[in-house]
Design brief:
With about 270 residues, the chain is of the alpha/beta class. Helices cover about 40% and strands about 15% of the residues. Helix 1 crosses helix 7, helix 3 packs parallel to helix 4 (about 110-140) and helix 4 runs parallel beside helix 5. Bound molecules: nicotinamide-adenine-dinucleotide (NAD). Belongs to the short-chain dehydrogenases/reductases (SDR) family.
Length: about 270
Amino acid sequence: MASFDPARLDGQAALVTGASSGIGRASAIALAAAGASVAVNYRGSPDQADAVVAEIEKAGGRAVAVQADVSKEDAVMAMFEAAEDRLGPLDIVVSNAGIQKDAKIAEMTLDDWNAVISVNLTGAFLVGREAIRRFRAKGRRPDVSRALGKLVFDSSVHQLVPWAFHVNYAASKGGIHLLMRSLAQEVAEEGIRVNAVAPGAIATAINAEERQDNSTGIEKLIPYGRIGDPDDIGRIVAWLASDAADYIVGQTIFADGGMSLYPGFRGNG
Ligand code: NAD
């Protein structure tokens, strides 16, 4: 007898922001591998987004590319419209797009601050708000999921761990932490699950320069002894969006090889 696999996402539609590279790309691919059709959002690299779409289609999945700058209200609304036009009502939204603009505090410009907050935090608000509106308009589809909708934010260990010289980034991720939990509290009774994943150090474009600078000794900060792959996070995003995680509401899953265990305190501290 065939049994229902709660980790599958067949018949569901998903949107992933910032999905033309890194963790967003891996999340889109993992969602598609689990059976969802996926809208691959990109800001400025259509070729990269098309490559993600092609990879998903080659594996037998369905995907479309949708352009938008997530920090712009009109663009976010148009992105959801385009995604639903092509894939149907969305069941899953992953707010992943993010940037860094690092500087010592005295040298951090207001533009550096505003750019990071606009994409990482205001973008998460705009995407999260539109996701909730769309889930409500769609209504329940018990044939594909117990939840009315699933919203996953890509946060960071830096929603918890302070990060000198990156106060804009850490503040944006700290903001996502309580945006996520407050929103989860607001909409859980409607059957909407809001959660987050908090990656540690994952090898992507966002930290390519830092990783090239071996003096950072990043591995020493990771008890598990390796930098993460985007797929480590993509798999968690797909699982969090599935009914296998149906009773997880308002939580952050730290996926960091133990980085948030503060390994510097091991031994004599
Ligand atoms: P990445 O640079 O490969 O991905 C970021 C994506 O966001 C890119 O595709 C970029 O085009 C997109 N983007 C940037 N601004 C945008 C905008 N205004 N509108 C739409 N898209 C936009 O890096 P990544 O590591 O995959 O980052 C993805 C997320 O993971 C970010 O939110 C980042 O903060 C978070 N994160 C990454 C790490 C890590 O170690 N790589 C750790 C913790 C959290």
